[in-house]
Amino acid sequence: RESWGKASGVRRFPWLCNVLLYGSLFSAGDATQQLLRRRPGQEPDWAQTRHVALVALSFHGNFNYVWLRGLERALPGRAPGAVLAKVLCDQLVGAPVAILAFYTGMSILQGKENIFSDCKKKFWNTYKTGLMYWPFVQLSNFVLVPVYLRTAYTGLCGFLWAIFICFSQQSGDGTAKSAFLWFRREEVNADGEPSEK
């Protein structure tokens, strides 16, 4: 009798399961940041969440699936040198591609006249903020997670990133500071001070 791990859907259908999980978690990240930012009586912008889902399912989930498998083929194993090389490649190539695709894809779906405007304004800040998070995520990914689950693990960690990058795309400037200041202002407002608009 096969064990659950060998018969699981993730092993049998790794691409489909990884991409769907990645897209679902990224969409949940957008919905979460909207709920956190929502004012009393304000409805969530489900069109925004659909746009995030479309970008995540059509590009990010697929890109991460192919990218992470390609990195493993090019730099196989868990030896320290291979792991560090994978993290470095991921941050120098994978991260910029993902950030560019997110801001540009969202601008296209939102019908913005200049589809590169958000990218020009927010790319470097977002990239630098990502350097405080993603190298540690990917280090644990390449050391601890089996190849067939790496996209799903990236999506799980991407839930937190999605909250941040969706906030940045909507209201922030791509810096952790802008997200922190917004969150801090919300805490103050919850204590009874009038909300800033």
From TrEMBL:
Its main location: membrane. It is a multi-pass membrane protein. InterPro entries: Mpv17_PMP22. It holds the Pfam family Mpv17_PMP22. The keyword Transmembrane applies. It is found in: Membrane. Keywords: Membrane, Transmembrane, Transmembrane helix. Belongs to the peroxisomal membrane protein PXMP2/4 family. This is MPV17 mitochondrial inner membrane protein like. The lineage of its organism: Eukaryota, Metazoa, Chordata, Craniata, Vertebrata.
